[in-house]
Amino acid sequence: MTPAVEFIDVTKRFPGATSPALDHVNLTIDPGELVCVLGTSGGGKTTFIKLINRLHDPDTGTVLVNGQDVSQVDPVELRRGIGYVIQQTGLFPHMTVSENIACVPKILKWDRGRIDARVDELLELVHLDPSDFRDRYPSQLSGGQQQRIGLVRALAASPEIMLLDEPFGAIDAITRAKLQDELLRIHRGSGKTFVFVTHDVTEALKLGTKVLVVDAGRVQQYATPEELLAHPATPFVRELLETQGYTPEGRRA
Ligand SMILES: Nc1ncnc2c1ncn2[C@@H]1O[C@H](COP(=O)(O)OP(=O)(O)OP(=O)(O)O)[C@@H](O)[C@H]1O
């Protein structure tokens, strides 16, 4: 099976930085996984996902997406096959909800009927009534609704890979839990590969089929939530779990 994503000895150092943002990273993400990238601020989580869609390029090493070295792929072409969701949503304020969702399908020259049907299908997927929401502008939505639109916009053309960078970070706890449940349902229904950045241990353990813990640019552990809880691989992982209330037995302290 060709991995969805593979990092081979990848190092990324930003100009002027004393230490690399990512340091000799090697790992493989299998198709269909939901990998949560977990760590404290500045550890390299965002850098990791931006290397997948070429918002950054590595200094050394190779990033492969679906078996292809991304440095050999036109970035615009590459990003068409990779959904990207960020906390600030990036919704276009002067476009309606349906125009926002239709962006990539339009670029791909889908016909009008197919686009309209897809917009309605996606709105229903996140429990927003199409007749109510289709023609609203982003400023007429709550924060949670904006996140749902950001999510389904990235899903519109069914990309093989979805990158999500702390998408629910600015949302209240109840809405956040609902969005997490919706994301899990969407991931399971899609069979696609999701990479989800978070600094919240509970979120990573709830969502991840695997959790990738990074700190100071290094992989601390890459394991299932169960393995992570039972056998924290480094003092950093143990401390991260303990400070958020998790003991090695997997119970909240
Ligand atoms: N464009 C950039 N130029 C210079 N340094 C950068 C740039 N982007 C990130 N860095 C540095 O690289 C390191 C890793 O940053 P990164 O954004 O990947 O961390 P993070 O784990 O996502 O943090 P956070 O949770 O705060 O978003 C940090 O030290 C950061 O200051």
Automatic annotation (TrEMBL):
<keyword id="KW-0547">Nucleotide-binding</keyword>
<dbReference type="GO" id="GO:0015418">
    <property type="term" value="F:ABC-type quaternary ammonium compound transporting activity"/>
</dbReference>
<keyword id="KW-0067">ATP-binding</keyword>
<dbReference type="InterPro" id="IPR003593">
    <property type="entry name" value="AAA+_ATPase"/>
</dbReference>
<feature type="domain" description="ABC transporter">
    <location>
        <begin position="5"/>
        <end position="241"/>
    </location>
</feature>
<comment type="similarity">
    <text>Belongs to the ABC transporter superfamily.</text>
</comment>
<dbReference type="GO" id="GO:0016887">
    <property type="term" value="F:ATP hydrolysis activity"/>
</dbReference>
<dbReference type="GO" id="GO:0005524">
    <property type="term" value="F:ATP binding"/>
</dbReference>
<dbReference type="InterPro" id="IPR003439">
    <property type="entry name" value="ABC_transporter-like_ATP-bd"/>
</dbReference>
<dbReference type="Pfam" id="PF00005">
    <property type="entry name" value="ABC_tran"/>
</dbReference>
<dbReference type="InterPro" id="IPR027417">
    <property type="entry name" value="P-loop_NTPase"/>
</dbReference>
<keyword id="KW-0813">Transport</keyword>
<dbReference type="InterPro" id="IPR017871">
    <property type="entry name" value="ABC_transporter-like_CS"/>
</dbReference>
<protein>
    <recommendedName>
        <fullName>ABC-type quaternary amine transporter</fullName>
        <ecNumber>7.6.2.9</ecNumber>
    </recommendedName>
</protein>
